[in-house]
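Chains adopt folds. We examine one example:
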Amino acid sequence: MSIKALSSDLESKNLRQIYLFHGPERYLRRQFRQRLKQALMGDDANVSMNYHYFEGNDTSVSELIDLADTLPFLAERRLIIWENSGLFKKSDDTMVDYLKNLPPTTSFLFVEAEVDKRSRMFKTISAAGGVVEFQTQDEDVLRRWITGILRKEGRQVSGGAVDLILAKCGSDMDNIYNELEKLICYSEGRDSISIDDIEEVTTTRIGNKIFDMVGAVADKKAAQALALYGDLLALREPAMRILFLIGRQFGHLLQVKDLKSRGYDNKTIAAKAGLPPFVVAKHAAQAAKFTDGELRSALNVCVEADEAVKTGRMGDKMSVELLIVELSALA
């Protein structure tokens, strides 16, 4: 079911007995988890006795089933939420069979970052309840969401400023929300947020710095790329994580370039590459500065740098520094 259909269920109180929320967008999973809890439990004075939250795959299925079989205390229903159960990668037959005969007084919500849609758990809930996937939101949705949050706080913001927020913060709604809170506090007493405010307050995510670093490499600006590397080290990012992200960036560029050459549009590329649509446009522009051969050579150089560190032939920080110089000469 879609997020829109779930919202309709919540507003009408026409709720299903079992739900599964999954997908990469943590902020939306958490928001709708809370909304479902409120819709099911309301202002029940005994909510603490009829609401149960579990997290992790070390929860005992048998104990949870015993709890689900227990009648709610002075209320119509009992709600059990289980987050990151692991049951959607390796199904538990006992739980699968139990969900098919769930007592009418108990509701279940499973919340997972990743699921195997071939699993028995997934298929069981798909047939008996509601499954909602919370994907990374596209640029237009994020623009409206950002503008709406700031408007509620009495702040006006230009389209260019919203673009800058997205460029610096990425598409993760949790991260964006945290940065918006900082901006709202910083602009206290004013009715607008400027580009200068955003530059002053918001934190550029490491992925964006890696993108800028690869851009500097493409422009043969080794000094600029090394300066960005120094910034990341100053932020206490491990050199080997930086190396991994550089390699991943070149991998994304090669994939986007290949899909683009085959005539796919940005939306299709985003789905195939697992990237937000507005990120694809940026990647396509950056990939155009490299040939296919240069991108493959860059990936090979990253593998060699990783091997040099792991075999002890070179220190991690020096290995990445030399990698940046070599990539700048390669491009």
